[in-house]
Amino acid sequence: MQALELLAPPGRALPCVAEGPELYFSESPRELEKAKVLCRPCPLRASCLAGAKERREPWGVWGGEVFVDGHPVPYKRARGRPRKHPHPPLPIDVEEAEAC
Ligand code: SF4
Fold first, then answer.
1. Region 10-39: what's the mean pLDDT?
2. Alpha carbons within 13 A on the beta-carbon side of 23
3. Rounded alpha-carbon distances, angstroms, from residue 69 to 33, 52, 57, 65
4. Which atom of ligand 1 is nearest to the CA of 17?
5. Of ligand 1's atoms, which has the minimum distance to the CA of residue 38?
6. Does 16 reside within a domain?
7. Ligand 1 atom closest to Cα of 52?
8. 43-66 burial string, b = 16+ CB within 10 Å, else e?
9. How many structural domains are present in the chain?
10. CB within 6 Å of ligand 1 — which residues?
11. What is the Å distance from ligand 1's center to 40 Cα?
12. More confident: 39 or 8
C-alpha cells in the first residue's frame, strides 16, 4: 500500500490507504462490500483492477472487486457451511406492510 500513497491525488489519500488493509482483506463479506463501495470514486480503479487480474490476486478487494483464488467474484461467502435451512421468504410484501 505504500506505493499507492505516491499515486494518490495531492492532499487526498486513496480510500484503501485511508481505511487500511483490515477492511480490504477482511474475512467479513459485509466489510468487503463496504470496501467495494469505497473504491468506486478512486481515480486508480481501472488500473488497480487490471493489475489485480494480471497478478491473479488471491484475495482482497482490488479495483472495486472482491478477489477469491485469483479471480473477481460478485460476492464472497462468509466462512463456514451454508445454512441447511435458509430463511423462508417473508409471507407478506414488506413494502406493502410498511405503507400501512
Ligand atoms: S481501486 Fe485500488 S487503489 Fe483505488 S481504493 Fe480501491 S483498492 Fe485502492
1. 93
2. 16
3. 17, 11, 7, 13
4. 8
5. 5
6. no
7. 2
8. ebbeebbeebbeeebebbbbbbbb
9. 1
10. 4, 14-16, 39, 42, 44-45, 48, 61-64
11. 8
12. 39
Top mutation candidate among 48, 53, 65, 66 for ligand 1, by most atoms within 8 Å of CB: 48
Q: Which atom of ligand 1 is nearest to the CA of 14?
A: 5
Asked if the model's pLDDT at residue 83 lies above 80, the reply is no
Q: Which domain holds residue 100?
A: 29-75+88-100
pTM over 0.85: no
49, 64 contact by CB (below 8 A): yes
What ranges in the chain are assigned the alpha helix state H? Answer: 2-7, 15-19, 21-24, 29-39, 45-55, 94-99
Distance CA 40, CA 44 (A): 10
* Cell digits of residue 85: 435451512
In a domain, residue 15? The reply is no
Q: Give domain status of residue 47, yes or no.
A: yes
